[in-house]
Specification:
This protein has 739 residues and is an alpha+beta fold. The chain is built from 14 helices and 40 strands. It binds alpha-D-galactopyranose.
């Protein structure tokens, strides 16, 4: 039984294969306390860790020093206003304007399943158990149902919370964090992902210090700037060893994550919805379901954490049938043509691409309304026959006749002020009535909290999809939310808009994948501003970044792969000088780097240098040969260019350890240095392996300088030498197979 309750000791113990999470109750009134989270242990009653004897307050016995207790007891769901100053998970304002809340245990149940979270993306799967603990503040008439789920095959613990208004008057939720736990700080570093447009998810690592540290998004999306993820790594924890805790929010909108270090060197870590732009009116009798946070713990370092998240998301989050299918190698016309295309140009690209084995043409922005640049027509989802002469079906049929699939770009959540849609419905944009809203990329955001607007969007998107054989959609979202005002909501509910907007996006995407179950959906947001587990529930892949430069991508993809399986990362080979940074890298290297994601092209194949075009079939062969290993394998990070500023190296290893693929990118050539020694990871110490090198010139494997066969332990402990390469930005692919 992964979840047990020990009635005598009033203790709940959750076990995953390698971790334990222990919760205890005080005597009456019973507070729900966090006792332990870490490596799996045998005993449940470790309540001595609560150090309650050091606190002069015992709930049933005296009242004198309750304040000290409130500020030291490790609460599972800390509330506001009764003396816990270490950070609040649940903050509720009553109609009278008070924000004081204290939750006591009421009851619990253990379910043999993981129930769905209404309207929200969440992990799913059989062989699951869920613990629900109901707590209550009788004074306010507020209940909080804490939920903890485990799967038999994962070291993750999923936490969420549902708030119920059992009183007679409405209350206002100002902060509803889904997870919070306290632990002793034995010297943890906080690891987060930060970034910008074209520079998403770079890794940052800093010591946790006294007071509050944290990160958030109030941009209406999970954002380029911060990611709804925090890890706490013991000092010295690296890729292969050391304690690491992870928190990752399955949500695509505003979030907060924080850590507080108190005077007793204890940490409180929390994550959820709250902060700016959130206030939810909960009517009497209503409930509010918060999204889930995925907690992980491992002693196998950052690599161990990555693999727990990768497996969890592949097995228990992504639903698309494409998860287990090879994605068609696509060519997207964005960097090839931008807005300057017609059906002839697209067909010319498709024709040339099909000769090289590329399998799908994706028509990006600019095919609809009067959209000839980024100032117009979002919302006018009608094919522009001045560009696509003869209509969409004719183009799609033409592409299909070349043996290729066809995909299309939409930005369904947006409206251009210069569009027929806006002229007809100026009130459909999110805005404060009477106030000129801020434009971003010359566009406004549609108020997707309104059903009639969602219905319009769905009707238009599906009309296009029904009009031709369209097998892929790139769903883009290119600006952040401002001017938060909805005509749909009364004054005291305007604070709900950001969350209602995200729920609207989820509802639309759910409808889309249900109506088109075979569709390959790729989410996107100005590159990777909405690359989060919430969106993965709907699409098996997300465009990682508008920066397709192979070197910048090393850092973006390293940060992304810290949590996400490689199969989810949209990655394309593009033309050089690169459109984001102007760098020139070898076509070969661009192929190696894109192989670590979904793999595709984003260039005008009719105009690139002949030598590059000739290499495409070899890269296509590379993709077909290794993609499954990349998509389904275990990921091991060997070296990080972001850290060493010289080279990057990572591996994927087949689950049965019979095969592995190593990618090495020499970013900077160095004079007068030894060849690099690389210690492989993830192999079976007892198996014997041989090494071959993929030759991009021939598209075939050839002998590597290290001939012979070696045991996995030799390759992992003694390591191998990487053959010298001449020049910057050079890449190498080694295929390691069991003999
Ligand atoms: C965003 C996307 C790009 C492209 C453009 C089109 O920036 O990230 O890939 O689709 O929009 O406008």
């Amino acid at each position: 039984m992964p979840i047990s309750y020990f009635d005598k000791q009033k203790i709940f113990k959750l076990d995953t294969p390698h971790t334990s999470y222990i919760i205890g109750l005080t005597d009456k009134p019973a507070f729900v306390g966090h006792i332990y989270y870490g490596a799996r242990i045998s005993d449940a009653d470790v309540s001595y860790l609560l150090r309650t004897e050091e606190m002069p307050y015992v709930p049933s016995q005296n009242d004198r020093d309750k304040l000290l207790f409130m500020d030291t007891y490790p609460m599972e769901l800390p509330t506001h206003g009764t003396g816990d100053f270490r950070g609040t998970a649940l903050k509720v304002r009553t109609e009278a304007g008070h924000e004081v809340l204290e939750l006591h245990y009421v009851s619990h149940e253990i379910l043999e399943e993981k129930p769905k979270l209404k309207g929200l993306p969440a992990t799913w799967g059989k062989e699951a158990q869920t613990l629900k603990i109901l707590t209550e503040d009788k004074y306010c008439g507020v209940q909080a149902e804490l939920s903890y789920s485990v799967f038999a095959d994962s070291d993750a613990i999923m936490r969420s919370v549902r708030i119920l208004n059992t009183g007679k008057a409405p209350v206002y939720l100002e902060q509803v964090y889904s997870a919070s736990f306290d632990m002793d700080d034995t010297g943890f570093d906080l690891i987060t992902l930060h970034g910008a447009w074209a520079r998403e998810r770079h890794i940052s690592r800093n010591a946790v210090n006294y007071g509050f540290q944290g990160l958030s998004s109030c941009r209406g999306e999970s954002s380029h700037q911060h990611h709804p993820f925090m890890a706490f790594a013991a000092k010295g924890a690296d890729q292969t060893k050391g304690e690491v805790y992870g928190l990752h929010f399955v949500y695509s909108g505003n979030f907060c994550g924080s850590v507080y270090k108190n005077q007793f060197d204890q940490l409180r870590v929390m994550m959820g919805i709250g902060g700016e732009n959130f206030c939810w009116k909960l009517e009497a009798g209503a409930d509010f379901q918060a999204p889930e946070v995925v907690l992980t713990y491992t002693v196998e370092g950052l690599g161990g954490m990555s693999r727990i998240y990768h497996d969890l998301y592949r097995q228990h989050l992504i639903r698309s049938p494409y998860l287990k299918k090879k994605r068609p190698i696509l060519i997207n016309n964005w960097e090839a043509t931008y807005f300057d295309f017609d059906e002839k140009k697209l067909l010319a690209i498709a024709k040339e691409a099909s000769k090289s084995g590329i399998e799908m043409l994706v028509m990006d922005d600019g095919w609809f309304g009067e959209r000839n640049d980024d100032t117009t027509a979002l919302g006018d989802w009608f094919v522009n026959e001045k560009k696509i002469h003869g209509g969409l079906k004719k183009l799609v049929d033409g592409v299909n006749a070349l043996g290729m699939k066809f995909g299309i770009w939409f930005e369904p959540e947006m409206i251009s002020p210069d569009s027929d849609l806006y002229r007809a419905h100026p009130d459909w944009a999110i805005a404060v009535p009477g106030r000129r809203a801020v434009r971003g990329r010359d566009q406004y955001v549609l108020d997707l909290s309104r059903k009639e607007i969602r219905d319009y969007v769905f009707e238009r998107v599906s009309a296009i999809l029904d009009s031709a054989n369209i097998e892929y959609v790139k769903w883009d979202m290119n600006r952040q939310l401002t001017d938060l005002g909805s005509l749909n909501l009364p004054a005291d509910q305007q604070g709900e808009l950001s969350h209602r907007y995200v729920l609207g996006v989820y509802e639309l995407q759910e409808k889309l994948i249900r109506r088109y179950p075979k569709l390959l959906l790729e989410n996107c947001s100005g590159g990777g501003a909405r690359f989060d587990p919430g969106m993965l529930y709907y699409s098996p892949q997300i465009w990682c970044s508008d920066d397709t430069d192979a070197i910048e991508r090393l850092m973006i993809q390293e940060g992304t792969a810290l949590i996400y399986p490689l199969s989810t990362m949209g990655a394309h080979v593009s033309d050089c000088p690169n459109h984001a940074v102007g760098r020139v890298t070898p076509f070969e290297t661009r192929g190696y780097v894109a192989l670590a994601g979904t793999f595709g092209y984003e260039l005008d194949v009719t105009r690139i240098p002949e030598a590059d075009r000739e290499m495409i079939p070899k890269q296509v062969a590379m993709y077909h040969k290794y993609h499954n290993l990349v998509a389904d394998g275990d990921y091991y990070r060997i070296a990080s260019y972001a850290e060493n500023h010289i080279y990057d190296c990572y591996m994927t290893v087949k689950k049965d350890k019979s095969e592995a693929l190593l990618t090495f990118i020499q970013v900077m050539a160095q004079p007068q240095v030894h060849t690099k020694k690389i210690r492989l990871q993830g192999l079976d110490p007892e198996k014997r392996y041989k090494i071959k090198r993929f030759n991009m010139e021939t598209g075939k494997e050839e002998a590597y300088s290290l001939k012979g066969t070696y045991h996995g332990d030799t390759l992992m402990q003694a390591g191998i030498l990487i053959d010298k390469m001449w020049g910057d930005f050079k890449g190498m692919l080694l295929h390691i197979t069991e003999v």
